[in-house]
Write a structure and sequence with these properties.
Blueprint (H helix, E strand, L loop, with lengths): L10 E6 L8 H10 L12 E5 L28 H5 L7 H6 L38 E5 L8 H5 L5 E3 L6 E3 L9 H5 L5 E4 L4 E4 L4 H4 L6 H4 L6 E5 L6 H8 L4 E2 L10 E4 L5 E3 L5 E5 L3 H8 L3 H16 L5 H7 L18
Parallel strand pairs: 1-10
Antiparallel strand pairs: 1-8, 2-3, 4-5, 6-7, 9-10, 11-12
């Protein structure tokens, strides 16, 4: 059953999907900092998916979570070839050797025949062009859930949720690589390192947090779409977005894990009629967003449109100013030891 003992404090992140560029800077920042071991070639503690799409690992949304009674559901471990996709090797040597030969020189491409990868369906949308086509980006990382299924699934008690900040960690000295945590996590944000035979996952850049510095994915984001702070800090951006204006929603709340990564859902341009005139109907189907973030999507989109209209009319809007993020320092509220770091 899910643990009912809340932590003293809970750190959280809010991501404004209206500002994500899909540039993968966050992915690269995380990968270079944490996933350089030989067994983590396919592991992306942070990744950015194009939606509508199958995600990474492929079709991750179809497995795991909790039952209505709070029991951990029997999930599955994704297949490395077909659902994760192994780290690709490219034909660098062939390109290098023939780079000066003129006609017929090979293009840079993966060796072999990869079947899936982290960005396999990047920038592929849905809807007929040009009237209805649409897509948007969804950055994903470990949600550091209030009731983490990975913790409850581990028979070795190798996973803990820190009392001081709610960050979920794997004790790799205790981990025996059973992968029950990978199976149980419905977000599929726990990865198995086949070289070291242990589970690994996002640690919310814990060493940086302890120094009052934002996680690398948030600090390196050129779109300033990530906000980091504590849920109980009423002066910080997290409380304002989640509990104040209530425009930030968890991903798949029906999993019943209490995610602490929240999203401001994307607004949408209008569909066009046959003569190219706006119809007033959003290109991104609202019901698709409801399937991601729950029924409160309707309320949130109405709030965003209302506050946006205020600015169009020259009226002040604290919410719009907060989301625009004129000063990136205001995106992060991490305590008195906060300092700038790249």
């Amino acid at each position: 059953m899910a643990s009912q003992n809340p932590t003293m404090r809970q750190i959280a992140m809010v991501l404004d999907l209206n500002k994500c560029l899909g540039c993968q800077t966050c992915t690269i920042a995380c990968k270079k900092l944490w996933n350089t071991d030989t067994g983590t070639g396919y592991a992306y503690w942070n990744n950015v998916e194009t939606l509508p799409g199958k995600g990474y690992p492929k079709n991750w949304v179809e497995s795991g979570g909790r039952t209505a009674e709070g029991e951990v559901k029997a999930g599955r471990v994704p297949n490395l070839d077909d659902e994760y996709g192994r780290a690709w090797n490219f034909n660098h040597e062939a390109v290098r050797k023939r780079s000066g030969e003129g006609k017929g020189k090979p293009w840079l491409r993966p060796d072999g025949a990869p079947r899936w990868g982290a960005n396999w369906d990047e920038d592929r949308g849905a809807g007929d062009y040009p009237q209805e086509n649409h897509y948007f980006y969804l950055p994903r990382l470990c949600n550091h859930c209030t009731h983490p299924a990975c913790l409850d699934a581990c028979p070795r008690r190798a996973i803990e949720k820190r009392d001081e900040d709610g960050i979920v960690l794997v004790d790799q000295d205790r981990c025996h690589g059973y992968r029950f945590c990978v199976e149980a996590c419905p977000y599929k944000k726990v990865y198995f390192d086949p070289q070291r035979q242990i589970s690994t996952k996002c640690i919310f850049c814990l060493p940086r947090i302890e120094e009052g510095v934002a996680p690398a994915c948030a600090r390196q984001c050129p779109g300033r779409l990530r906000f980091v702070g504590y849920l109980d800090d009423e002066a910080g951006p997290i409380w304002k977005l989640v509990n104040g204006y209530k425009v930030a929603l968890p991903l798949h709340p029906e999993f019943e894990l209490g995610p602490n990564v929240f999203y401001v859902p994307p607004m949408s341009p209008s569909k066009l009629d046959e003569k190219g005139r706006p119809t007033g109907e959003p290109r991104i189907p609202t019901e698709y967003l409801v399937g991601l973030f729950g029924e409160r999507v309707h309320e949130v989109l109405a709030t965003l449109e209302r506050e946006r209209e205020k600015r169009r009319q020259g009226e002040p809007s604290e919410l719009m100013d907060l989301l625009i993020a004129y000063d990136w320092n205001q995106n992060f509220a991490l305590g008195p030891r906060k300092r700038e770091v790249l």
